[in-house]
Design goal:
With 352 residues, the chain is α+β, with helices and mostly antiparallel strands. 24% of the residues lie in helices and 28% in strands. A hairpin with a 7-residue loop joins β8 and β9. α7 packs across α8. The chain is elongated.
């Protein structure tokens, strides 16, 4: 076996697909789209280096493996990397050689960033390779389906009903309300929440436009949002009608179609999971979060109340990262009791 290495060329994707076959994991399906010609970062394209390994037989090179490293516009503190080797060429040093070559290329990235990150599925050859290469988990993500009625509805004191406590499904518009996905108020809290739960891999400063594009734009499939507010209070004392709405405590954005994911930026997948138009009874894809300034107990209560409302009659599917402390407090007991289930294998983000 004579292996030679070269830059990616047009047509390599089709040649490799013939050798590789279908993707073995969700990560392979996602990152194969990032295998593309190298770029110096001009014209709005990310800086990228992509290398192909060929098995040369009788003077003819047959692509059997490829690796890529590239900068990301979101979470810029690390470079994304992906390597795939044909099944019958594994454990022969090809992957390790590709990684070493990509590390050398990374040392010349225009941003000066050299740390690598990748996504793997536990128990797979990719996870074993990452561990052997010195890449350690920095985050775990799970796709979870919460079954209808898994949580009891919350009870709110509702001013629309004379202050009498009412269940969540009948709560007045001062506490639970629909909000347009283009709302500046919603965009603000979604952006700050996303930043707060990604302290392990900072997304940098997110503009209003970026938050809209990632989570709330029509192209993401976002088609509705509800918020849970704090009780409105009057600035003029008891008995005087409040002049302002209560602040947003928690939010839920629902999605009706797959997110238009950019294969060069897999960070975009850390929000909505994305799914086709749901068949009757299929779970609705949602992104649930909270005002990041809330105290831990208040955040956990707000998220639990929101989850109980949106999953009262229909199943919902959400992405659960280990960094989502408040959401984990609501969902993990449901997983333990069988009222929620994993919809796919876990994903680990690994880094050096």
């Amino acid at each position: 076996m004579a292996i030679e290495y070269r830059e990616w060329r047009d047509g390599d994707d089709l040649a490799l697909l013939e050798i590789w076959g279908g993707p073995e994991t969700a990560q392979a399906r996602q990152f194969r789209g990032a295998l593309a010609p190298s770029s110096n970062g001009a014209g709005g394209n990310p800086w990228r280096r992509c290398i192909v390994a060929e098995d040369v037989i009788d003077g003819v090179g047959i692509p059997v493996a490829a690796g890529v490293v590239y900068e990301a516009s979101l979470h810029p503190e690390r470079l994304w990397t992906y390597i795939e080797v044909a099944r019958d060429h594994r454990r022969s040093g090809i992957g390790a050689t590709l990684l070493a070559m990509l590390r050398r290329e990374a040392s010349h990235a225009p941003s000066g960033v050299t740390k690598l990150r990748a996504k793997v599925e536990p128990g797979t050859p990719g996870a074993a390779f990452a561990e052997a290469a010195g890449l350690s988990p920095i985050q775990r993500s799970r796709l979870v389906v919460v079954e209808p009625g898994a949580l009891k509805l919350p009870v709110f004191p509702d001013k629309d009903h004379g202050g009498r406590p009412v269940s969540g499904e009948n709560a007045g518009s001062d506490v639970v309300m629909d909000l347009a996905t283009g709302s500046v108020e919603l965009t603000d809290v979604v952006g700050r929440y996303y930043t707060a739960i990604h302290g392990w891999d900072s997304p940098g400063v997110l503009s209003v436009g970026q938050v809209q594009k990632l989570f709330l734009d029509e192209l993401t499939g976002a088609h509705g949002a509800i918020v849970l507010r704090a009780q409105p209070e009057s600035a003029f004392g008891q008995g005087i009608a409040p002049s302002k709405k209560g602040r947003i405590r928690a939010f839920a954005v629902s999605y009706a179609a797959p997110a238009a994911a950019d294969p060069s930026d897999p960070d975009a997948g850390q929000g909505p999971a994305g799914q086709d138009e749901a068949a009757p009874g299929a779970p609705t894809d949602v992104f649930v979060g909270h005002e990041p300034a809330l105290a831990a107990d208040d955040a956990a209560e707000a998220v639990r109340d929101m989850l109980s409302l949106i999953a009262y009659q229909h199943p919902v599917m959400l992405e659960l990262d280990d960094s989502m402390t408040a959401l984990r407090a609501a969902v993990e007991p449901l997983l333990d009791s069988g009222k929620a289930r994993l919809a796919a294998a876990e994903t680990l983000v690994v880094s050096d």
